[in-house]
Design brief:
The chain has 14 helices and no strands. It is mainly alpha-helical. Helix 1 (2-33) runs antiparallel to helix 13, helix 4 (69-100) packs parallel to helix 7 (140-163) and helix 8 packs antiparallel against helix 9 (181-192). It is globular and about 75 Å long.
Length: 279
């Protein structure tokens, strides 16, 4: 029996290793082509850049200059950091209230959060764009509020599952010691929720950093450009694209999120399991 399990384990490991390599291959391909001359990217996309193909860092320099990448990087960082911070604070507090107060209102709030996860964004994007313009939310600060609305569904769902598993006795002991509800939340509940917080942070950061559609609908792209929007500026007239510069910019934009994910990914399973203790 143990021999059979070991054999099955090796087979599964091999299969999933191959699948992982297939997922990684497009990233490797972008990296390789970022060092090629523009003419060779379309002709020989799978070849290693050598000899006449190799241009060094030329594509990176040209891509940064054409897109204004540093400014786009700053806006992407600002929007991502503050959006995730607002999502974590607001949604964790909402989930704590939902998990501790049982009535029709909290049940309705929880149902709406679940419903928000189901509704496709395409169904509401035109209405959203109109309302954002009416409420003057067409700026990075307004976009943070919009991201809170779209990110609340998943965050509240994960936080609620975890907070239902926290013993009430811990919070009651804090209240007896003189803590106010806010002190109890920030000193007791939120630190205990660290695994779920990290999981939500990772998922939300990867979504917001790579998002193109929502910023392009809401922001005034002449004033504010995130990295995905900046990449689109490498498209010329009649469908022409500076592929070399685009590959270089894509590599630069991918590196921060890969480093962030690799440094935090070990917490994902821990957070998901912690949030699944009680439904």
């Amino acid at each position: 029996m143990n021999t059979r399990k070991t054999k099955h384990g090796w087979i599964l490991t091999l299969v999933f290793s191959i699948i992982s390599l297939l997922y990684m291959y497009p990233i490797v391909l972008v990296f390789i082509n970022s060092f090629k001359k523009k003419a060779y990217i379309s002709k020989f996309p799978f070849k290693i850049p050598m000899g006449k193909m190799f241009v060094g860092m030329e594509n990176y320099v040209r891509g940064v200059e054409k897109t204004g990448l540093y400014q786009a990087l700053g806006w992407s960082l600002f929007i991502t950091v503050f959006s995730v911070a607002v999502i974590i604070i607001c949604c964790s507090m909402c989930a704590w209230y939902i998990s501790r107060v049982k009535n029709k209102i909290t049940s309705a709030i929880y149902t709406l959060c679940l419903f928000a996860m189901v509704v496709p964004f395409q169904m509401e994007m035109y209405t959203l764009s109109k309302i954002a313009n009416m409420l003057k939310l067409d700026s990075p600060w307004g976009l943070i509020i919009i991201y809170l609305g779209f990110g609340a569904g998943l965050a509240v769902f994960m936080f609620s599952g975890f907070m239902k598993s926290i013993p009430l006795e811990i919070e009651e002991a804090a209240m007896i010691d003189g803590c106010t509800p806010l002190q109890t939340f920030f000193k007791i509940v939120l630190p205990i929720s660290k695994p779920t917080c990290i999981t939500v942070v990772i998922l939300e950061v990867m979504w917001i950093w790579n998002d193109y559609l929502l910023p392009s609908l809401v922001l005034d792209t002449k004033k504010y450009k995130t990295i995905p929007i900046a990449v689109q500026y490498l498209k010329g007239g009649y469908g022409s694209i500076d592929m070399g510069a685009m590959m270089g910019v894509l590599v630069i934009s991918i590196i921060p999120i890969i480093i962030f994910y690799l440094s935090c990914q070990k917490y994902i399973i821990e957070g998901v399991i912690a949030g699944a203790v009680k439904g």
